[in-house]
Design brief:
The chain contains five helices and 22 strands. The chain has 310 residues and is an alpha+beta fold. The chain folds into two domains: 2-204, 2-Layer Sandwich (Copper Amine Oxidase, Chain A, domain 1), CATH 3.30.457.10; 214-308, no CATH class. The longest helix has 25 residues, at 214-238. 34% of the residues are buried.
Length: 310
């Protein structure tokens, strides 16, 4: 069961994509600082038609669907620790562009659009940014800045701007990891081999500093792992069974630090390397990929190893 579950989770991890229809940044529809996300088959004949579910600010669940073209690299956007729905990232000539309204309003700025002049103005208490569609120049508080990619209007009529420029102009830090899954994931679908690669773009804008170090995170994750291991052994004992070759024993303390992205440290437990363990360096919360249905679920708590042995 472990190998089967691992294959399912790994295959569908690579299919995360976010739809543009339901996100309204100015209504705080999504829950910030929370990486919880579920990804599952939407029931379409095309296995690439995936549903994405994440928590809303009011405690309900947002569900969107999107068709993922075969071979597409997946680029998720995370702002201040939470995945942002609706942030369809465009990579053009090795430059990353994002919808200006989603980024700016999520970071607390106001966005104004002059349709006649095709000019976007982004303002917050400290910064005024002015961009013109098609121009490789912008102004930040009146000073002219040269962009590495011009602002553009996409086929769905949204205004896209260079990610690093708009974030850093608003005093935010930009990061990227392609180690959420270390290698492109492939799966067979209708006799066609589909390959995907998952990366996460992060933006952090906060006046606070991380509270916990990677070493502190490792200690907390090991403590959670020990607790989960005890639950597994208690379950086996209660059911008069033991570890087997099919579901072997494991070392609950053999955990490795992998990388960091945004405010999260990533760890992995030996024997369960397909499942990332995320530790919030600001809050000390642990999130992990939960093996089971739906096909991918990142939720609070340690890896649900017990499910693999039941």
């Amino acid at each position: 069961m472990k190998k089967f579950a691992t294959a399912i989770i790994t295959a569908f991890l690579s299919m995360i994509t976010l739809n543009t229809a339901t996100f309204a940044a100015d209504t705080a529809q999504w829950t910030q600082n929370n990486p919880s996300i579920d990804v599952f088959d939407a029931g379409s004949v095309d296995a690439s038609n995936m549903a994405v579910q994440m928590p809303n600010a009011d405690g309900s669940q947002m569900v969107t669907t999107s068709l993922l073209p075969p071979g597409s690299p997946i680029r998720l956007l995370m702002i201040n620790g939470g995945f942002v729905p609706g942030a369809q990232i465009i990579v053009q000539n090795d430059r990353t562009l994002v919808p200006v309204r989603i980024i700016s309003e999520t970071l607390g700025a106001q966005v104004d659009w002059d349709a006649n002049q095709k000019v976007v103005t982004v303002t917050d208490p400290n910064t005024t940014i002015v961009l013109k569609i098609g121009s490789s120049e912008a102004t930040v508080n009146g000073d002219t800045v040269t962009l590495d990619a011009a602002a553009m209007i996409s086929s769905d009529s949204r205004t896209y701007v260079p990610l690093r420029f708009i974030a850093e102009a608003m005093n935010a830090q930009v990061g990227y990891t392609d180690k959420f899954n270390d290698t492109p994931v492939s799966q067979q679908n209708n006799n066609q081999l589909l390959s995907y690669n998952v990366g996460i773009v992060t933006i952090e804008k906060t006046d606070n500093q991380p509270t916990y170090s990677a070493d502190a995170g490792l200690a907390a994750v090991k403590a959670a792992s020990a607790d989960t291991y005890k639950q597994v052994t208690d379950y086996l004992k209660a059911n008069n069974t033991t570890f087997t070759n099919f579901s072997p024993d494991y070392d609950s303390q053999k955990i490795t630090y992998i990388t960091a992205f945004g405010r999260y440290y990533i760890y992995r437990l030996a024997g369960f390397e397909s499942y990332n363990i995320l530790y919030n360096s600001y809050t000390g919360e642990i999130f992990s990929q939960q093996p089971g249905l739906p096909f991918l679920a990142i939720g609070e708590g340690f890896i649900n190893i017990g499910w693999l042995y039941q």
